[in-house]
Amino acid sequence: MKTPVLSLERSLKTAKRAIVLGIGGGGDIVGTIPTVRFLELFGIECILGGLPWERAVFDPIPGPRILKEIKNVEVLNSTVWIANKETVTTTGVRFAESVVAEVYGKEVLLVDITKGVAGVVKGLRGAMRKLGADLLVGIDVGGDSVAFGYEKGLASPLADSIMTASISILSGEFTTLLGVFGYGSDGELTHEELERAFTVVAKEGGILGSWGITPDVLCELEMLVSKVPTEASKIPVEAAKGERGEKTIRGGIRKVTLNLLSTITFYMHPRIVYEKVSMPARLVSDSRSLEEANEALHSIGLFTELDYERKKYQEKRSD
Known about the structure:
This protein is α/β, with parallel strands linked by helices. It has one domain (8-318). Helices cover 38% and strands 20% of the residues. The protein contains twelve helices and eleven strands. The chain has helices spanning 8-14, 33-40, 96-104, 116-131, 157-170, 191-203, 215-225, 235-240, 270-276, 279-284, 290-298, 305-318, and strands at residues 17-22, 45-50, 70-75, 80-89, 108-111, 135-141, 175-181, 207-211, 245-249, 254-258, 265-268. It has a nine-stranded mixed sheet, sandwiched between helices. The termini are far apart.
């Protein structure tokens, strides 16, 4: 194994304030909580955030919401906004981030990915500086961020690839971490596929550490998943309580296997994941819009979550 490219312990001992983002949309912000509590042990103040992209079952309009489609939100910059418990879409859909803001009595961030990687990088760079943050952490619930791109079950690569590429680029300016929580809990990558990706990252010195769900955090997550509609972030909670075996999610179309691996957040260097594993992230790295990123993923035959939502939306309109 190569020498680790970053010392997790030294980085956390020197960090003062972190932006911790759920990078896949939906309920991924719930998956940031174990990491937030871990960072707080080092005295790090954490600012939570996620994407303004709810699953189609809650928001039938395809894709993430843009600024003019959101009410009760404060603009930090063109791609990073500040949400509160009252933040909703113009059609009345509440974001998972809004619920989290209400539960904790704190404002949270929303990151607009519709301007592609270029927009996310610019926005997060500005947010880090304006908010005085020196650590940027992206949390992926399930593991799509470490997909090579050819995995048969890969169904929602768009948001994760844009955010993984963005965080990787910013690793040249800030201390950054990519965390995978849930180990297959979204039913897309198999455990064997995840193990293959993790092995590559480990050989390159990119596995920086891990942290599990403590009893206190388990109680907190139980409370949170009772308020935030999420399936993928709920799987680790069930596994931590001793549930085992297979379970179906997403209306029965995906299967997940419950085991203790899903209770662990694995921290990796985003640059290693970007360079050695994630072809989707590399393909979208030059994107300046959501459409550009989506088309880049089409070049290797991927059908993204945006494609799925558009297909379902058109089918409903045709009924």
